[in-house]
Amino acid sequence: MNRQEYIDLQAECNTLRGMLAKIPEDRVLSRASLEIRLDELEEKLADAPAIEYEPAKAVLTFSGRPVTGSEGILAAFASKALSSFSEAITAVGASLHATLAATGPVPNRDQYQMMITGTARGSFGFQLQDATAQLEFDEESTVAKALEATRSLLDGSIGVDDEQLAEAAADMDQRALDKIRGFVSVLNDYEAVCSLKHADKSFRFRDSSQVKRSLERLSTEYLSESEQVLSVVFGGALPHRGSCEFQVEGDREWLTAKIGPGVKAPDSINDHRGQVVKAKMLVTQAGRGRPRYKLLALPTWPASQTSE
Predict the structure, then answer these.
(1) Is residue 74 a contact partner of residue 59, using CB atoms and an 8 Å limit?
(2) Model pLDDT, residue 2
(3) Residue-range definition of the domain harbouring residue 26
(4) Are residues 71 and 215 in the same domain?
(5) pLDDT in tens, 157-204
(6) Structural domain count of the chain
(7) Exposed, middle or buried: residue 60 (CB in 10 Å: 0-12, 13-18, 19+)?
(8) How far apart are CA 89 and CA 61, in angstroms?
(9) pLDDT at 211 over 70
(10) Is residue 307 part of a domain?
(11) Which of 191, 219, 247 is the last residue of a domain?
(12) How does pLDDT run across 164-176, given as a tens digit for each residue?
């Protein structure tokens, strides 16, 4: 049994317990099948061997002008490429927990580090692994999330779908995007391409023309992010999904915003539905695609109004 299967069994047990809690004890027949299933699952969990935390892993390989097959790679390029990739993962990981300042130290950067554990076969490359401390069993590594977010953005950067690109960028702030642009820029400067494999997903630049296309679509002229203060009316928030609904004042269309890591107690949005407030949003737009929104901070609520 792997980690995900164990977590799924735990979740099913909790669901069954919640269902049983709503059925009176004297309704024996109604409870029977649920109790049997719960006993089966609890027995499986009890018999399951101890499952250790598995750190996030990735394989980053290169080809192109600075690479000689699987024999070697120019040291100057390898140093710059690995450094810029590591900086990108660190910035993306940090941006998932806090809004990053344009300059200065990245908060808690030690929590988003990767280490080289070996070289990769085939095209010359490196095996990478999460270097952070062991997590709780059911906790997902921030490095794993950052790897997937980076892979998703790179994938969107070589396509034609502006919606996909904007969606991938919407969770990142400008500093994280700049670091990913920096990594792609190193590839372009050295006429190199790369592939990135993480978990069961992978990304690959086919040739140098895709690297150039990626740089163009990741440029600040094409993929724009700006902090804006908008007059909005909130329709409600779903903190467990990390999102809220709102209308821009004077517009009847309902929009969805992600809730940023700096928003504390987002439940309070539900106590102020229908009020016109000033909300600080990060607005992300790719090309002519629809803007994506992320709420950066709770508004100052009007003291004299209450929601229905």
Answers:
(1) no
(2) 62
(3) 3-47
(4) yes
(5) 999 999 999 999 998 889 999 999 999 999 999 999 999 999 889 999
(6) 3
(7) buried
(8) 16
(9) yes
(10) no
(11) 219
(12) 999 999 988 899 9
